[in-house]
Amino acid sequence: MRMEGYLPMLKNSQSPILSSSPPYEIRPLIEAIRFESIIEDWFAHKSSFINATLEGYINGNRVNILPEEILHTEKLNKSFRLTNVQLYSPQVKKYCDTILAQEGLVLTANMYFTPHQDAQCFTWHSDSQFSQTYQIEGEKKWSFLNDKEGFVREKFEQEKILRKFKEHKLEATEIEFTLSKGSWLEFPYCLLHKAQNLGKTPSIHITFAYNMATLGDFGKFAFEKIMGKPLRDNYMDKISIEELKSALKNFNGDSTEFLKEFKEHVEIIENIKRTQGRPYGYEL
Q1: Are 83 and 277 within 8 A, CB to CB?
Q2: Which of 85, 108, 253, 255 gives the lowest tally of CB atoms within 10 Å of its CB?
Q3: Is 80 exceeded by the pLDDT of residue 3?
């Protein structure tokens, strides 16, 4: 099965794209994915992968969750996320491996279970990767923030923008998409969004993501390379302008060699994601 040119099209999109089903080229691979199988595979292989984690959430807040709880989802009153599903689920791995072989892109996958409308997983946030979402069961409403400049994409501005929106000081609208069982949603990186269960029955979806090296990633790499010390944390949007200016003043190296080193750095991270899963808390 050849899917040449499918995924790179998403990189040129500036807004979310909703379809009633996955694209024809990838539909058989996606529709083979089953919630119950992923749960079974996680229990069978979770000890083999440090980045294959189980996380509990209630309305954006992290909560404790025991492995045995996800065996009885009918009793759950909290959401959960299984990360790096591509490491241990044969169906998910098959799709990710196909995209890697044909497009050279490393996909990671997370599965989300939300029991009902009173125990949502995440509130407003943005991601640093391009995303594809498949609704396995139930329904989920996705909302994206859209202001006069279009869909918000600048990560370093988003905390301020979201605060203004919540305080009714920003002219912006919520663009909504409702996913039912079998629906497919794609959206580019750095869009402020939230996903909510619509009712009293469980909603289950899986998200595939691939990260592109951004200016933020390059800025982090440049700062640490030039200054010889790590940033305060892993996120470029936390670095101050003064720190970056100070770092650039100290740079006397060869820019060509510098870019080569950054490319090698990206390749190392891509290989880590491919073999060990995406290490959460790291932008790239």
Answers
A1: yes
A2: 255
A3: no
Q: In what order do the strands lie in the sheet with 61-63?
A: 17-19, 184-187, 130-137, 203-210, 108-114, 79-82, 54-58, 61-63
Instruction: Return the closest-CA partner of residue 82 out of 106, 130, 49.
Output: 49
User: Domain coordinates of the chain in residue numbers?
Assistant: 7-210, 215-276
DSSP, collapsed to helix, strand or coil, labels residue 132 as strand
Does the pLDDT value for residue 104 go beyond 70? yes
* Structural domain 7-210, CATH architecture: Sandwich (2.60)
d(C-alpha 98, C-alpha 29), whole Å: 9
Contact call for residues 190 and 154 (beta carbons, < 8 A): yes
Q: Percentage of residues in the chain with pLDDT exceeding 90?
A: 45
DSSP alpha helix (H) spans, the chain? 27-31, 35-45, 90-103, 158-166, 215-227, 241-249, 255-276
Count the Cβ atoms, other than its own, within 10 Å of residue 34: 14
Q: Which amino acid is at 48?
A: S
What mean pLDDT is reported for the chain? 81
